[in-house]
Amino acid sequence: MLHRLAREIPQLGILTTKSIGLYERKGNNEPILARSPEGGILNCVGLSNPGEEASREELASIYPLPEGAFLMVSVFGATAEELVKVAQGLERVCDGIELNFSCPHAEAGLGASIGSSPELSARLTRAVKDSVSVPVSVKLPPIDSIGDVAGACAMAGADAIVAVNTWGPLPDARLSLGRGGLSDLH
Ligand SMILES: Cc1cc2nc3c(=O)[nH]c(=O)nc-3n(C[C@H](O)[C@H](O)[C@H](O)COP(=O)(O)O)c2cc1C
């Protein structure tokens, strides 16, 4: 899909993958999407992905993307060691690594809380920056103190800040998890 989007819509400058972790994750059971009564979409996908090794093989078959499109690979991990392993495993099949510090419906440690701590976000950013040679961006949650976290990540070497992930999680009984992150409020 990424390859086709790059080929057919050359105006797309950066294409970002779903977030990838070290190991395969099935994510949450359906239903994982619901329309919010106040507008927007709630989701509790749960970081489903095929894992670093399978993702590397798949990405190798589309990289580099046509039309000079920049392939950003989003990664997540619970520890610096895990994040570095995933980032190092994938850096040769992408143009840049995005650190997902902001998934609001993930379990503690898997992105949910990282992006609200300037110290933790900076430490993890530095660990990845020291380990890979491609540009590193940091995706943050929509919180009031986003400026503090973004500043700490920039000081730690982040090449770009991506704002923002979904808001929440908000309760919704239709979702299998009973809650989800809110997006698409434009
Ligand atoms: C179904 C779905 C899956 C998503 N998966 C990811 C993901 O794997 N990694 C990530 O960083 N953000 C993920 N997001 C968040 C979006 O990338 C985006 O940050 C969010 O929807 C807010 O932007 P928007 O309001 O413009 O949609 C997902 C959003 C949706 C709706």
Summarize the structure.
The protein is α/β, with parallel strands linked by helices. 26% of the residues lie in helices and 21% in strands. It has five helices and nine strands.
Describe this entry's structure for a reader.
There is one protein chain. The protein has 186 residues and is α/β, with parallel strands linked by helices. It has one domain: TIM Barrel (Alpha-Beta Barrel). It is built from 5 helices and 9 strands, in the order H-E-E-E-H-E-H-E-H-E-H-E-E-E. It has helices at 2-8, 52-60, 80-90, 118-129, 146-155; strands spanning 14-16, 33-35, 41-43, 70-75, 96-100, 136-140, 160-163, 167-171, 179-183. The chain has a 5-stranded parallel sheet. A 4-stranded antiparallel sheet has the order 2-3-9-8, with no helix packed on it. Helix 5 (146-155) links the parallel strand 6 and strand 7. Helix 4 (118-129) runs parallel beside helix 5 (146-155). It is globular, with a radius of gyration of 16 Å. The model has no long low-confidence stretch (mean pLDDT 94). The structure holds flavin mononucleotide. Flavin mononucleotide binds next to strand 3.
